[in-house]
Amino acid sequence: MMILRKKMNYIVGLLLLAFSVLTYADNVPPDVLVKNTTVDVTTILKRDKAVLLNDSQKLYALIDAKVLPHFDFNQMTMLAVGRYWRQATPVQQQSLIKEFRTLLVRTYANALAEFNNQVIEFKPFNMAANATDATVQTQVKQPGAQPIPIDYSMEKTDAGWKVYDVSIDGVSLVTNYRSSFATEIRNSGIDGLIHTLAGRNQQNAPTKPATTK
Known about the structure:
Elements: H1 2-16, H2 30-54, H3 56-66, H4 73-81, H5 90-112, E1 119-122, E2 133-141, E3 148-157, E4 160-168, E5 171-172, H6 173-203
Antiparallel strand pairs: 1-2, 2-3, 3-4, 4-5
Keywords: Signal
Signal peptide: 1-25
Pfam families: MlaC
């Protein structure tokens, strides 16, 4: 389980960056959105990785500004919480969205440290003209290892195409969290899950880089 979690954190963090450049992508098809940004993002990582990793606040700010707008965190949180979502009060739902969003930001930031110029390939994509849901299939190639398939589940919204799940080597990110969230809720209730997520996020809160005199 730990190996799977590390692989998911690493790959999700890497691949989600493919959405960080096109801020105004309302009318861009989902596959084009991913393809057109990959080269640009790779360039950014090569150029700024050392600086960003030395200042986690800048790294988190970059992710918050460039990556997160392309994800539907309301939908992702609702799917991750599963059947317990309807039991949550509106206040609890907003807290769950906030903490889950923060958790994923921390995950993506930590995963960036593992980026090492892997190659991203895209599988043929077909979508009906009036489709509102699509899956973009890719794979990550790295020397000495089997390619890792990555599937992006996306939905068309008024603000353009948004990601609501990522499957890594056949394992859904949302489903993976749903299992652990359900266990936490059964043991400690919805407030217990919120408390656990908040505590984890607090532990991993960004720190300012050390200054030299």
